[in-house]
Specification:
It is a single chain. The chain is mostly helical. The protein contains 18 helices and 4 strands. Among the domains are: about 220 residues, Cytochrome C Oxidase, Chain A (Up-down Bundle); about 140 residues, no CATH class. The longest helix is centred in the first third of the chain and has 35 residues. The termini are far apart. It binds heme-as and copper (II) ion. The site of heme-as has 36 residues, from helix 7, helix 10, helix 12 and helix 14.
Length: about 550
C-alpha cells in the first residue's frame, strides 16, 4: 500500500542490515577460533592475529555492540513504518543513522584490527584503547539516538493525524525500547565522553576505574534488554501469526515493555557484586530489583507459549507436549525463534543464579558467565534475529529465500552446539575456570577443566557450522535465488485488543519516564553523591597486550 513511500527508507534499512550481518560474520569466526584454542588449535596465529585477546575483543564488540545495535536500528525502523502505515518522519535521519553506524564500525573495527585497542567489549580502564576506538563506539551510539529521534517523530506525526487513538502496538513497543535505551545509554556515553576519550588522548593522565565501571554497568545491564526486546516484539506480535495463532493481549504486552522500561536500568550493580567500592546496601537493593526484572520475562514465557500452544492444538496436537510437534518446524524463521526461546529458558535460569548476591560470589568472573550469556544474547537474541532475517531479507530484496531447509538446519546446529558449549562453560565455571582467559597459555589449568574445555570446543564448532549455514542461505538468497516474491511483515491478530482493557496507564509514557528517573535517583543517586566526595583518579592507561 505504501511500498513506494517506504522504498527510500528501506534502502538504508537493508544496508544497515548488511553492516550488522557483516559484523556478526567476522564476530562468529572469532568465536570459532576461541573455541578451538580450548583444544590448543591456534587459528589466530595462522591468520595473523596478534593474540587470543585481539580476537576476543573483535568477537565481543562486533557481536554485542555492533551487530545488535545495527540490526535493531534497521529492524525497528522497518517495523515502525509498517505498524503506522507511513514512512519515517525524516528521510535525512534515516540516512544519518546509517552513515553514523558505518563510520562507527569502520573506526572501531580498524582500531581493533590494528591491535591498538585490545580492551575487550567492556573496555574497563586502566586498559587503554586508541582514542578512535572510543570515537567509533560513540558513533554507534549516536546512530541509535538518531533512530530513537526518528521513531519518536514518526509516532508523534501519526498521533497528530489520529487524535485520541491508541498508538499501534508494534510502533509503541519500538518506541518504548528506544526510550529505555536512550536513558540507559547516558551512562556509557558520559563514561566515554567525559572519562575515557580525554584520558586516551593524554589530556588527563589518570582516570577512575571504579567510576568508569559504575557508569558502564548503568548502561551495561539495560543494554541486554535493548538486545532482547526486539526479539520479544517478534515473539509477541509476529511469531503467533507465523505459526497460525494470535497474540493473547495487547495491554499485557504493553505492560511487559513498560516494566522493562522501569526495571532495566536500576540493577547495574548486579555486575559489580564483587567490586570493593560499592557498599553492600546498594548491591542488595540492585539484587532485589534484578528479581523484579525477572517478572516481565516470566509473563512473556507464559503468554508467548500460550499462543504457540493454541496453534499446536488447533492443528490437532494432543497431550501435555504433543502440540509442540504440530508447530510449523519446516519454516526456518519459526524454527529459529522456537529454538531461541528454548535456549533462552536456560539462559534465564542461569541469570537467576548470577543475580543471587551470595551465589554470584561463586560464579563471578568464571566461565559460568559466558555460559549464561551465550544462552541469552547468543541464542535467545541471536537466533531470533536470524529468524527475523529469514523473512526480512526476502521482504527487502524481493528474492525468495534460498534453500530454506538449510535454514532450518542452521538453527538446530546452533542450538545443539550452544547446549554443549554452555554446559561446558557452566560446568567449568563451577570448578573455578576463569572467563576471558587464553586457556592454551595458562599455566594453572586444572584437570577438572579438561572436559569443559573440550565441550566448549566441540559445541563452539557446531555453533560455527550453524552460523555458516545461515550465511550460506543468506548469500544464496542474494546471489543465486532467481524467484521473485512479495513478502510482508507478519502481524498477529490480537485476542484482547487495546479497547477491551484500561489502556490509560499505557498511554502515559511521560509518567513512566518520571517514575524511572525517581527510581534511578534512589538507586544510584546517594551512592554517586557520596562517591564524588572522594573520587579515585588513580589509574594511568595500561597496554598489557
Ligand atoms: Fe544476564 C551477566 C542476570 C538476562 C546477557 N548477562 C550477563 C552478561 C551478559 C548477559 C552479556 O545478576 C555478562 C556481562 C559481562 O561481560 O560481564 N541476566 C540476569 C538475569 C536475567 C538476565 C536475572 N542476560 C540476560 C539477557 C541477556 C543477558 C536477556 C542478553 C540478551 N546476567 C545477570 C547477572 C550477571 C549477568 C547478575 C552478572 C554476572 C557476573 O557476575 O558477572 C533475566 O532477565 C532473565 C529472565 C529470563 C527468563 C526466561 C524466560 C523464558 C522465555 C522463553 C519462552 C520460550 C519460547 C519458546 C517462546 C525468566 C521468555 C518456546 C518453544 C517451544 C518449542 C515450546
Ligand atoms: Cu545484568
Amino acid at each position: 500500500m505504501h511500498a513506494q513511500q517506504f522504498r527510500p527508507h528501506d534502502r538504508f534499512v537493508l544496508w544497515q542490515l548488511y553492516i550488522a550481518l557483516a559484523a556478526v560474520f567476522l564476530g562468529v569466526i572469532m568465536g570459532f577460533f576461541q573455541a578451538l584454542e580450548r583444544m590448543n588449535i591456534d587459528l589466530f596465529k595462522v591468520f595473523g592475529f596478534a593474540s587470543y585477546y585481539q580476537g576476543l575483543t573483535l568477537h565481543g564488540v562486533l557481536n554485542v555492540l555492533v551487530f545488535t545495535t545495527a540490526f535493531i536500528g534497521a529492524f525497528l525502523t522497518y517495523v515502525t513504518m509498517r505498524s503506522l502505515g507511513r514512512p519515517m518522519a525524516s528521510y535525512r535521519l534515516t540516512a544519518l543513522q546509517f552513515v553514523l553506524m558505518m563510520l562507527g564500525v569502520v573506526l572501531a573495527g580498524w582500531k581493533m584490527l590494528d591491535n591498538s585497542s585490545t580492551v575487550l567489549f567492556t573496555f574497563y580502564p586502566p586498559l587503554q584503547a586508541h582514542p578512535l576506538f572510543y570515537v567509533g563506539l560513540v558513533f554507534v551510539v549516536l546512530s541509535s539516538w538518531v533512530t530513537f529521534l526518528n521513531i519518536a517523530l514518526t509516532v508523534r506525526a501519526w498521533q497528530r493525524d489520529h487524535p485520541g487513538e491508541t498508538v499501534p502496538l508494534q510502533a509503541f513497543l519500538s518506541l518504548v525500547v528506544y526510550l529505555m535505551w536512550f536513558i540507559a545509554s547516558l551512562g556509557v556515553a558520559s563514561e566515554v565522553l567525559v572519562l575515557l576519550i580525554p584520558w586516551s588522548l593524554g589530556w588527563v593522565e589518570r582516570t577512575d576505574p571504579q567510576l568508569a565501571r559504575t557508569l558502564f554497568w548503568f548502561t551495561g545491564h539495560a543494554i541486554v534488554y535493548f538486545w532482547l526486546l526486539p526479539a520479544y516484539i517478534s515473539w509477541y506480535t509476529m511469531l503467533p501469526k507465523q505459526v497460525g495463532s494470535k497474540l493473547l493481549s495487547d495491554p499485557l504486552t504493553r505492560l511487559v515493555f513498560l516494566m522493562f522500561l522501569l526495571f532495566s536500568v536500576p540493577v547495574g550493580f548486579h555486575h559489580q557484586f564483587v567490586d570493593p567500592g560499592v557498599p553492600v546496601m546498594w548491591k542488595t537493593i540492585h539484587a532485589a530489583l534484578t528479581y523484579a526484572v525477572f517478572f516481565p520475562s516470566m509473563i512473556t514465557f507464559f503468554s508467548v507459549i500460550a499462543s504457540l500452544e493454541m496453534a499446536g492444538r488447533a492443528r490437532g496436537g494432543q497431550g501435555l507436549f504433543g502440540w509442540i510437534l504440530k508447530l510449523p518446524w519446516n519454516d526456518p524463521s519459526v524454527t529459529a525463534q522456537l529454538l531461541a526461546g528454548i535456549g533462552f529458558m536456560f539462559g534465564g535460569i542461569s541469570g537467576l543464579i548470577n543475580a543471587s548476591y551470595n551465589l554470584n560470589q561463586v560464579v563471578h568472573n568464571t566461565s559460568f558467565v559466558p555460559g549464561h550469556f551465550h544462552l541469552t544474547v547468543g541464542t535467545g537474541v541471536f537466533l531470533s534475529y536470524l529468524g527475523i532475517s529469514y523473512w526480512l531479507i526476502p521482504a527487502l530484496t524481493g528474492r525468495k529465500l534460498w534453500q530454506p531447509r538449510l535454514g532450518v538446519v542452521s538453527s538446530w546446529l546452533w542450538l545443539i552446539g550452544v547446549s554443549i558449549f554452555s554446559r561446558g562453560q557452566i560446568a567449568g565455571g563451577l570448578e573455578g575456570m576463569p572467563r576471558r582467559t587464553w586457556m592454551a597459555a595458562a599455566t594453572y589449568v586444572l584437570d577438572a577443566w579438561r572436559i569443559p574445555n573440550m565441550m566448549t570446543a566441540v559445541g563452539g564448532t557446531l555453533m560455527f557450522l550453524g552460523a555458516m549455514s545461515f550465511f550460506t542461505v543468506l548469500l544464496g538468497t542474494l546471489f543465486l535465488s532467481r524467484e521473485r516474491v512479495t513478502v510482508t511483515m507478519p502481524v498477529a491478530d490480537i485476542i484482547t485488543p487495546p479497547e477491551a482493557a484500561s489502556p490509560i496507564f499505557t498511554r502515559q509514557l511521560g509518567l513512566w519516564v518520571a517514575v524511572l528517573v525517581v527510581l534511578i535517583m534512589i538507586t544510584y543517586g546517594p551512592y554517586m553523591i557520596s562517591y564524588f566526595s572522594n573520587p579515585a583518579f588513580v589509574a594511568r592507561g595500561l597496554r598489557v597486550w
